[in-house]
Amino acid sequence: MATPTQNAKAATKPTLGYWKIRGLASGIRYQLAYSNVPYDEEVYEQGDGPEFSRAAWYDVKHDQGLTYPNLPYLRDGSFSLTESGAIQRYCAKKWCPTLLCDDDMETYGKAEMAWGVVLDIKGFVATQCYVGDGDKKKLADAAIPRFGLIAKELSENKFMIGDRICCADFAFVELVEVMDFISDGEIFKVYPSLKAYRDRVFELPRLKECLEDEKRLAFNNKVAKIGNM
User: Fold this and answer.
1) Are 57 and 19 in contact (CB under 8 A)?
2) From start to end of 58-161, where are the E strands?
């Protein structure tokens, strides 16, 4: 007999909309793969330079029925939402509730704290990829120290909040992938625990195959100075 969660997966095939890059969608795709949720995609491609047109999205942005139009978005039946963190939490609540870690308040608090830490570091790295001078080494030197506290925690724990995985892990492991690219592997020499963590996450069910699909895409959009191809 199918479980309620299995029935939910069978009844609804969500759609994820995003640019033709890894960006903010990779963490969502990893989480959906881990949760064994099939989904469709709606892909928007930025134009080539020098214009780097965003017309593929802008021309239809306000025709999607979204309350706050943005990329990524998720459609699930008649319901739609935007913002990557909200999407991951929604997907967890519906298809893999254990990822929310809300069975006790301390664990939940740690999971939410992990989200904030990941967003802070990701915001710095992503911004510099787009508005910096394109010097990968300079960015690596500035960004690597920001991973120190997480690396210390991961030297003692399997995942960000201990022995269980949470939503933030799917976003963070993609950030580690980005930094491996930016630093040409230097981050793993400085923090071996991040390499062990990265390998551990991608050994989880279906994630290795998902990563291979992600590798076909650029980290950032065409207009970025780093990771745009």
Assistant:
1) yes
2) 73-76, 79-82
Count the residues in the chain. 229
Q: Retrieve residue 212's tokens.
A: 């291979």
Interhelix angle for 192-202 vs 167-182, to 10°? 120
pLDDT tens track for 124-135: 999 999 999 999
CA end-to-end span of the chain, whole Å?
46
Query: HEC profile for 44-101?
Result: ECCCCCCCCCCHHHHCCHHHCCCCCCCCCEEEECCEEEECHHHHHHHHHHHHCHHHHC
- In contact, 14 and 28? CB cutoff 8 Å: no
- Tell me if 205 sits within 8 A of 199, measured CB to CB: no
CB of 167 within 8 A of CB of 88? yes
Query: What digits encode the pLDDT tens for the residues 170-211?
Result: 999 999 999 999 999 999 999 999 999 999 999 999 999 999
Which among 4, 34, 28, 24 has a CA at the least distance from the CA of 14? 28
Single-letter amino acid, residue 184 = D
Q: Does the pTM exceed 0.85?
A: yes
Q: Are 201 and 169 in contact (CB under 8 A)?
A: yes
What is the DSSP pairing of strand 15-19 with strand 40-44? parallel
